[in-house]
Amino acid sequence: MLSDKAKYSANILKNYSTLLPHKHRCCARVGRQGDNQQQSISIAPKCENLGSVVHELGHVIGFWHEHSRPDRDAFVEIFTKNIETKNLFNFEQKSYNEVNSLGEPYDYDSIMHYRTNAFAKTDGLETMRPKHGSRRIGITSKPSKGDTKQVNMLYKCPCKSHFVCKIII
């Protein structure tokens, strides 16, 4: 699920993105923020792992959370009463004007999908639940096939099923 501000070239991503240590936050803005404007990616100790860094890089290149898609209600149930108030924004459903999934189906395996208990007010509470079966969500350290296909379509890479570029972190 992509923002309309997504388009970066590999050189722009290299020159205008910076990983910054942060005490508590793991975050990045979605998509390019303006001409020649530095894009910061905040990385707290709790997210010093490949999956979290790739998730934040997903935001930088234009990906919203998968569970924020306009069609998400057909795939997951969100329990807002169980979500920490300060993190409700991470579960806001986006409109079709804000995102473009490039025709790709909902992706439970997306690197951009949170776990079922993400930002729960207390341990053991669900913040979302898949509507179709007992699918595990948000438990990945690499982009899914759907993520890869969307990135390749967006950036017009010749191969649709795997990354053409080598990712070095």
**If you consult CATH, what is the topology?**
Collagenase (Catalytic Domain)
| Shape-level CATH architecture | 3-Layer(aba) Sandwich
Whole-number count of domains: 1
Task: Give helix % range.
Answer: 10-25%
Strand order of the largest sheet: 2-4-3
Rounded Rg: 16 Å
What would the principal axes of the Cα set say about the shape?
globular
Percent strand equals 5-15%
List the uncertain runs.
2-13
Q: Please, what is the CATH homologous superfamily?
A: Collagenase (Catalytic Domain)
Described by strand count, sense and barrel closure, the largest sheet is: 3 strands, mixed
* Secondary structure tally: strands: 7
Q: Helix/strand-derived class?
A: alpha+beta
- CATH class descriptor name: Alpha Beta
Number of helices: 3
**Mean of the pLDDT scores?**
80
Distance between the termini: 23 Å
InterPro entries: MetalloPept_cat_dom_sf (IPR024079), Peptidase_M12A (IPR001506), Peptidase_Metallo (IPR006026)
EC number: 3.4.24.-
Protein name: Metalloendopeptidase
Enzyme class: hydrolase
